[in-house]
């Protein structure tokens, strides 16, 4: 791939990510992507293939970014001097990733609503391994008695995902009915504190949840 080709392919992927996150796979056409990138459909097809191939490339990039962020966060858990703080730190890192990369939760939330329903392998290929990695990293805390053995770790992790994705994508309504999203520092701080408290109680962690 020449430098010019690499630049065009990167532009196409960036534009496609934005459109798939905003409109979903089913609501986005290759023509829309080409027009937004300032290219023709033939050029898009040449660099990245058809719409399906482009979507798979977008989801692969989103997954790799999420995986890298989680691996960095999970690396702090083993042997942490303060394991409770490390568990909260894992949640913080995931929240920060989704706030900084809102297209990633948006892409997955479209799939929750049956977007791209003919592309069925992504959850098995991407979501299940990451979920297993996170629950596996938390299991030693159960064995050590830090986390209650009555906790359903898988559903707890899913609850964090649902909450974080919902906040990163939709925010919350204030008293006047205005939507306050992750760009509102006060709303983000309040959500983070609530997430800490909820997770702390769910896991049965000792000490102050904040």
From TrEMBL:
Q: Which residue ranges hold the DNA-binding region?
A: 29-48
Q: Which GO terms describe its molecular function?
A: DNA-binding transcription factor activity; transcription cis-regulatory region binding
Which Pfam family name is an example for this entry?
TetR_N
Statement: the UniProt record of this protein carries the keyword Cell membrane: no
Query: DNA-binding as a keyword?
Result: yes
Domain (HTH tetR-type): residue spans on this chain: 6-66
InterPro entries for this protein:
DNA-bd_HTH_TetR-type_CS (IPR023772), Homeodomain-like_sf (IPR009057), HTH-type_TetR-like_transc_reg (IPR050109), HTH_TetR (IPR001647), Tet_transcr_reg_TetR-rel_C_sf (IPR036271)
Give UniProt keywords alphabetically: DNA-binding
Q: Which domain of life is it from?
A: Bacteria
Indicate what this protein is called per its UniProt record. TetR family transcriptional regulator
Q: Which organism is it from?
A: Nonomuraea fuscirosea
